[in-house]
From TrEMBL:
GO terms for biological process: regulation of small GTPase mediated signal transduction. This is Uncharacterized protein. It comes from Octopus bimaculoides (California two-spotted octopus). The lineage of its organism: Eukaryota, Metazoa, Spiralia, Lophotrochozoa, Mollusca. Transmembrane segments: none annotated. One of its GO terms (molecular function) is GTPase activator activity. InterPro entries: Rap/Ran-GAP_sf, Rap1_Ran_GAP. It comes from the Eukaryota.
Length: 72
């Protein structure tokens, strides 16, 4: 099962595990300072890489979490 969400570019967004993936996004990214990087792969397909840095277990150790957004 895939959840399809309309996107501004009229291409559906597919989530392989919508419940788990949306929870993960809400927990680690939503409302938190994070960076988004936009690029194109070798086939010129666009992608966005979202990166957030947190303190792993409050031990002053940076922990990077990323989400790769692609059309397929």
């Amino acid at each position: 099962n895939h959840l399809q969400i309309p996107s501004p570019l009229n291409s559906p967004i597919h989530l392989e595990n919508p419940e788990s993936q949306t929870r993960w996004y809400f927990r680690y990214f939503l409302g938190k300072l994070h960076q988004n990087y936009v690029g194109a792969d070798a086939e010129k397909e666009p992608f966005v890489l979202s990166v957030v840095v947190t303190d792993a277990n409050n031990l002053n150790v940076p922990q990077y979490r990323t989400i790769l957004w692609r059309k397929t």
